[in-house]
Specification:
single chain; six-stranded antiparallel beta sheet; alpha+beta; 19 helices; 49% helix; 598 residues; 13% strand
Length: 598
């Protein structure tokens, strides 16, 4: 091995290696197409298998009057052991449910307080009574009740309601009636779980997507709307069902696979390393978890991969031989997806600083090339480039960001318009600056790289004794912990080699990570680290290639690493996908650290 690389000039502006030893053409060959299809199909199968039910109640009762009532009649005396209620947007208010054997004497069965954190979820309550009649009375209005179902213990089919008797003094302006509360009994589950209801931030993002579709007042306005606008496409195609509100997240999680392959192929210019990088992405639990949940992060991270890869390709394109004109395509691609990422979540704005730094490095390299070639047209080209950047990285992103608010403005009940756009941004900033509430799964930025506190997204209830069911935002331990070592090692070796792939990855990583050290928001979560995950995967591949180039057994090491990553992915697969396993196995085999609370 030879560590005596030329380190006389270490300024990133003068880094000259493009990280490609064997200049294999970046053009895709049939093998690339076969591999990317294979990996994409594998990712799609894992994402869409058991993603969620394609059915759910769609009609609802929204009482407009306190005291509005209806009575469900079973037709005969039945034993009732549990009730499941499915609530919708506007989940606030109270309902009183009473039981009766004869329709004359009534006993309180349940006081229901409707809450926003149960939107599009099944609320289970267990209480055993014998009754023929169940009466629902509105105590405080403001809620939407989509469906109610009564069950006898261990009988998975709801007790059949033979008749619905509406109150004589019910409001005529209410939306729906008691008839809509019992009209979709076939979709009522005996046991609620993630397949038939929302969990974690789906109650914000998935709900808001539905509100955009129905032109209802958006509940969630703490992030820009583009991510929810995209999620709404799935709701339009598959209705407001678990499959529908998660569908577009699954699409973007699947699309990330060929996009990432293209980025790795362009950076390493080798089919082998593009395949290894993308295989690691498919084996990354964080990617799979967010592909299967109605969240906007999977969309934003996909956009960040495109914007940084486009900037990398711009930096690699010399201005000579027509390259100047072609280079604007990469700048335009980077600027557009920078705007799209920012319109999903503000934290992706941080990457804009990284893009600016890489642009400066690229322009300085162009200046060096022009000076070496005696190109006297450099000044004109530089001016044109800087002028175009005002359009491509200011005007276009601002336009994309602003256009994303069209569905929000259409849906809001307030008489808002684009003149209120600045007010929306101020309200978002004030919200994030003011987030102070403690959260059991919050974590500080310095704990993220070692995955000290994963976020517990979902915990199954009403399980058999000794069983456990969880979905957690946790990555593949080898990819995260090994990736951190690979990241730091690649920075050291890449610095010595003046490697521009390493430069790109380092700048991108730090541009996303460093702002969290000084961000005004005090409550943060591990999922804020998500944009850095593709970058550590590329750092791993860079190091694997380095081992293969410098050690005789380098390829054997690569095989061992990939095999171990695959084994760990299978090991943790139950908590990526919500499989039911034994509690003992969860506590002993899955919970490696005391801080992993699931």
């Amino acid at each position: 091995m030879d560590f005596r690389d030329d380190v006389r000039t270490v300024s990133p502006m003068q880094w000259g290696s493009n990280s490609v030893r064997n200049q294999e053409d970046r053009q895709w060959r049939p093998l690339d197409i076969v591999l990317v299809i294979l990996l994409t199909v594998i990712a799609a199968l894992m994402t869409f298998t058991d993603l969620g039910n394609r059915t759910a109640p769609q009609t609802f009762w929204m009482p407009d009057k306190v005291g509005e009532t209806f009575t469900a009649d079973f037709g005969e005396l039945r034993k009732v052991d549990r009730i499941n209620l499915y609530e919708g947007p506007g989940a606030k208010g109270n309902t009183k449910i009473e039981s009766s054997k004869d329709g004359q004497t009534w006993d309180l069965y349940l006081d229901v307080e409707h809450k926003t954190n149960r939107v599009f979820t099944w609320k289970l309550d267990e209480k055993t009574v014998e009754a023929r009649y169940m009466r629902f009375t509105t105590v405080q209005k403001g809620y939407r009740l989509y469906e109610a179902a009564f069950f006898t213990k261990d009988v998975t089919k709801p007790i059949q309601v033979m008749d619905i008797q509406l109150g004589a003094n019910n409001s005529t302006t209410s939306e729906g009636s008691g008839l809509e509360v019992f009209d979709e009994q076939q979709w009522a589950p005996y046991r609620p779980d993630y397949r038939n209801g929302m969990y974690f931030d789906e109650i914000y993002h998935g709900r808001t997507a539905y509100e955009f579709v129905k032109l209802m007042e958006p509940y969630e306005n703490t992030h820009p709307p583009l991510g929810k606008v995209i999620l709404a496409l799935g709701v339009k195609m598959f209705d407001m069902t678990p499959y529908g509100w998660r569908f577009m997240a699954g699409v973007f999680g699947t699309l990330m696979v060929p996009i990432f392959y293209a980025a790795a192929k362009g950076m390493f210019a080798r089919t082998r390393y593009a395949f290894l990088a993308t295989l690691l992405l498919v084996l990354e639990g964080f990617h799979l978890v967010h592909s299967r949940s109605s969240n906007v992060d999977i969309i934003g991270v996909t956009f960040t991969i495109i914007m940084f890869y486009a900037m990398y390709r711009y930096g690699e394109m010399a201005w000579r031989n027509g390259g100047f004109r072609r280079s604007f395509g990469y700048l335009a691609l980077s600027g557009f997806f920078f705007g799209a990422a920012a319109a999903v979540k503000w934290n992706y704005l941080y990457g804009g600083a990284g893009l600016a730094i890489l642009l400066v490095f690229a322009l300085v390299r162009r200046w060096r090339e022009a000076r070496s070639d005696g190109d006297y047209d450099f000044v004109r080209r530089m001016i044109l480039t800087l002028m175009s950047c005002i359009i491509l990285f200011v005007a276009i992103p601002v336009t994309v960001y602003s256009v994303s608010y069209i569905p929000y403005i259409k849906a809001t009940k307030a008489e808002d318009s684009y003149k209120d756009l600045w007010k929306y941004q101020k309200n978002m900033y004030d919200y994030h600056k003011g987030v102070k509430e403690d959260h059991p799964y919050a974590s500080k930025w310095y704990t993220w790289p070692v995955m000290l506190r994963p976020v517990w997204y979902y915990g199954g209830k009403d399980l058999e004794k000794g069983e456990a069911q969880s979905i957690a935002a946790i990555g593949n331990p080898l990819i995260w912990w090994g990736g951190l070592l690979a990241l730091l090692a690649s920075w050291w070796l890449g610095f010595r080699r003046r490697d521009r792939v390493v430069l790109t990855l380092a700048v991108a990583y730090l541009s996303f990570y460093v702002p969290w050290m000084v961000a005004p928001r005090s409550i943060t979560f591990l999922y804020h680290y998500f944009p850095m995950v593709p970058l550590i995967i590329l750092s791993i591949v860079w190091m694997l290639r380095w081992f293969e180039e410098n050690y005789r057994n380098g390829r054997r090491f690569t095989l061992i690493f990939i095999s171990a990553a695959a084994a760990l992915f299978i090991w943790f697969y139950p908590i990526y996908t919500g499989m039911t396993i034994s509690r003992e196995w969860m506590n002993i085999a899955i919970r490696w650290l005391p801080s992993w609370g699931f």
